[in-house]
Amino acid sequence: MPRLTIAIDGPAGSGKSSVARRVAAMLGYLYLDSGAMYRALALKALRHQVALEGESRLEALAKETHIELKPPRPEQEAAGAKNCVFLDGTDVTEEIRTPEVAQAASRLATTAGVRRVLVTEQQRAGAGGGVVMEGRDIGTVVFPGAELKIFLDASPEERAERRWKEHQEKGEKMTLAEVFDEVIERDRRDRERKVSPLVRAADAVLVDNTAMGIEETARLIVMLAQDREKELAKTARREA
Ligand code: CDP
Ligand code: CDP
């Protein structure tokens, strides 16, 4: 069977990481979380007090930074990590999951030069297929030729509640209303930015998983992927 490139895009808390990770495991594909790269770079900018707006300094920072995504170790997976993230050789898997880093990521993600650098990295990491990559612009910019594109969505209330529960489990003291505001502000910035805004690709399948669990959503996407694999295999046989 041919090995597909699967792009999953959607707003914060829609279930992209959990679902994409499960889909990749079911298909034996590589899972890549592009948002983790924006978050890692944002963590570095915060630590070095680099302004989160301003083209040239941020682009230079992106160019001199090495970000690597790896499958998590079993104990990290048990703690909820889907990708292990290394920033200049140091594991920052947990540090990048704070609301502060999320906001900083969405601010620096509006910079065209930063996106150019990270998109090139993402294209390199996913080259060759057999990959599930998730983010905001995977089906529109990173892999516009992906054989399967999913736009994953859920109601804003459901997405905020999911994120809030994660924070609760980590012992962070944010109210549901505060998490809701963080998620909505980031969505608005991601949808309204000039470069590579969050938008459903014309050929993406819309999956609303407000009332669906991770497993059910992953199974649906795997079924769509298997249909695509068969279609492509048939076309290849016809052309041979
Ligand atoms: O990556 P994204 O921000 O889109 O979402 P996520 O990190 O995969 O999911 C946010 C939270 O919602 C996680 O704690 C998931 O376990 C949970 N979730 C859920 O309860 N039901 C779903 N259908 C999808 C995710
Ligand atoms: O997990 P969650 O959906 O909350 O966010 P994320 O996927 O980790 O992404 C963090 C931020 O990075 C997003 O709010 C976007 O601003 C940015 N991002 C992006 O611009 N393009 C991507 N392909 C992935 C993330």
Q: What number is the mean pLDDT? A: 96
Computed CA radius of gyration, to the nearest angstrom: 17 Å
**Structure ligands:** cytidine-5'-diphosphate
The secondary-structure class comes to alpha/beta
Helix content: 40-55%
Share in β-strands: 5-15%
Main beta-sheet strand count, sense and barrel state:
5 strands, parallel
Given as residue ranges, the uncertain stretches (5+ residues, pLDDT < 50) are: none
N-to-C SSE string, H for helix and E for strand: EHEHHEHEEHHEHEHHEH
Principal-axis shape equals globular
Task: Tally the helices.
Answer: 10
Q: Which strand order spans the largest sheet, edge to edge or round the barrel?
A: 2-6-1-7-8
Count of distinct strands: 8
Q: Give the terminus-to-terminus CA distance.
A: 15 Å
Question: What is the topology?
Answer:
Blueprint: E1 5-9, H1 16-27, E2 30-33, H2 34-47, H3 55-63, E3 67-70, H4 74-78, E4 84-87, E5 90-91, H5 99-108, H6 112-126, E6 131-135, H7 138-142, E7 148-153, H8 156-169, H9 176-192, E8 205-208, H10 214-239
Parallel strand pairs: 1-6, 1-7, 2-6, 7-8
Antiparallel strand pairs: 3-4, 4-5
Helix pairs in contact: 1-10, 2-5, 3-6, 5-9, 8-9
Q: What does this protein structure show overall?
A:
It is globular, with a radius of gyration of 17 Å. The protein has helices at 16-27, 34-47, 55-63, 74-78, 99-108, 112-126, 138-142, 156-169, 176-192, 214-239; strands at residues 5-9, 30-33, 67-70, 84-87, 90-91, 131-135, 148-153, 205-208. It is built from ten helices and eight strands. By secondary structure, it is an alpha/beta fold. The strands form two sheets. A five-stranded parallel sheet has the order 2-6-1-7-8, sandwiched between helices. The protein has a three-stranded antiparallel sheet with strand order 3-4-5, covered by helices on one side. The longest helix has 26 residues, at 214-239. It binds cytidine-5'-diphosphate (2 copies). The site of one cytidine-5'-diphosphate has 16 residues, from α1, α8 and α10. The site of one cytidine-5'-diphosphate has 19 residues, from α1, α2, α5 and α9.
